[in-house]
Design brief:
It is a single chain. The chain is α/β, with parallel strands linked by helices. It has three domains: 184 residues, P-loop containing nucleotide triphosphate hydrolases (Rossmann fold), CATH 3.40.50; 72 residues, Helicase, Ruva Protein, domain 3 (Orthogonal Bundle); 29 residues, no CATH class. The protein is 53% helix and 7% strand. It has a six-stranded mixed beta sheet with strand order 1-3-4-5-2-6, sandwiched between helices. The chain is globular and about 65 Å long. The N and C termini lie far apart (149 Å).
């Protein structure tokens, strides 16, 4: 009896099994019904809040890409091939030396436009410059006849602001040569070996532009005594300078090397040997005639009147050219400020220059104080005889 009751129960279970499959078939919508249901589901879907996650953050980028795409999506765009790029090995420094040499910005080659006629006064300096340097350069046939070579260079020394650079430019103009001026900051480089390369390129540029005057300003810093140098890199720079000067001596016609320094006693003795900077020229503060020329030049074109240039030149003995230029600037500043305060324009007068000279003192005094001990107690070979004679004449020693 129990078995008979169980069999109908099993039959009911067997009959009940296909019901889920039928339910699934009934629940599965057809394609037309699916098209109707999807818009309704989109309407019923709640809006997500802003900044709801990475998917929400990606939507602006997707919208931007959609705007960038063409409206007619039916037309496929032609694929663009990416530009070929040369691979650069990781960790390897690629340096183009040829491009670096072409881009050396400190080599400014100028045309010599001024001559010694533009230098006021300094007659003794001009005569020595003519005899020691310019005359052999201007007369190559006589130079060859007498066996006078163009080896070595000329070193100008003296107090700062007295026209050494201007004199070097005048030499280039006298020779009809190009002019290259180089300072220590133009040559030195933080990378080992690059300073020597800069020096070599500097001389090579002068050789390519011959006839050329190569002017080394502040040569005491570039060619200072190697015994006082703690850096091996700086010693290498001095050695390279010696090599380049020897090359100029031996095989480079038309390259004239001039140097300037305020401290000739700090220059390495190897640079003073024959064939290098074996000739020196002392450039002292301007004399009376030169001071008048400098004052006229710096007052020219300014709103000035009633100034006795000759009287002013007598009052400024011992002043450098830079000191005189500064005094003229201070006088102009005083007249300008007075015009602003009074509300009316007035001329620069003698009183303005008198007041300016009370503020601007000669800057050459400290240099002569330092040079006195060298000229009196370290005058080896009489190289500072001219300086010592000047100091005794002007009661500076």
């Amino acid at each position: 009896m129990e078995r008979a009751e169980a069999e109908p129960a099993e039959q009911e279970q067997v009959k009940a099994e296909p019901e889920p499959a039928k339910a699934e078939q009934k629940a599965k919508p057809t394609e037309p019904e699916l098209a109707k249901v999807e818009p309704e589901q989109e309407k019923a879907k709640p809006r997500e809040p802003k900044h709801a996650g990475a998917e929400q953050e990606a939507k602006p980028a997707e919208r931007a890409r959609a705007k960038a795409e063409p409206k007619d999506a039916q037309e496929p765009r032609e694929p663009q091939e990416p530009e070929a790029q040369e691979p650069v090995p990781v960790g390897e420094v690629v340096f183009d030396w040829a491009a670096a040499e072409e881009e050396l910005g400190f080599l400014d080659v100028e045309e010599g436009r001024i001559t010694l006629n533009d230098v006021g006064g300094l007659k003794a300096v001009k005569e020595r410059l003519e005899a020691a340097f310019l005359a052999p350069m201007r007369n190559p046939e006589l130079r060859r006849l007498y066996g006078k070579n163009t080896r070595g260079g000329l070193m100008l020394y003296g107090p700062p602001g007295c026209g050494k650079t201007f004199m070097a430019r005048a030499v280039a103009g006298e020779l009809g040569a190009k002019f290259i001026s180089v300072t220590l900051s133009d040559v030195l480089d933080m990378y080992i070996g690059q300073s020597e390369r800069n020096l070599h390129e500097m001389f090579e540029t002068a050789r390519r532009n011959a006839p050329c005057v190569l002017f080394l300003d502040e040569v005491d810093a570039l060619g200072q005594k190697r015994s006082q140098l703690r850096s091996s890199a700086m010693r290498g720079t001095v050695n390279q300078l010696l090599v380049e000067l020897d090359d100029v001596r031996d095989s480079n016609e038309g390259v004239f090397v001039l140097a300037a320094t305020n401290h000739p006693w700090d220059v390495d003795t190897a640079l003073r040997r024959p064939g290098r900077f074996d000739r020196t020229l002392l450039v002292l503060p301007p004399d009376g005639e030169a001071r008048q020329a400098i004052l006229r030049y710096h007052l020219k074109g300014r709103h000035a009147e009633g100034i006795d240039i000759a009287k002013l030149a007598k009052r400024t003995e011992g002043y450098s050219g830079a000191d005189l230029a500064h005094a003229c600037d201070v006088a102009a500043e005083k007249a300008l400020l007075d015009s602003v305060r009074s509300g009316r324009t007035r001329m620069i007068g003698a009183k303005d220059l008198e007041e300016a000279l009370k503020e601007v003192r000669p800057s050459t005094g400290p240099w002569f104080a330092a040079a006195r001990n060298v000229a009196m107690f370290a005058n080896e070979g009489g190289q500072y005889d001219e300086l010592l004679a000047y100091m005794k004449k002007h009661r500076l020693a």
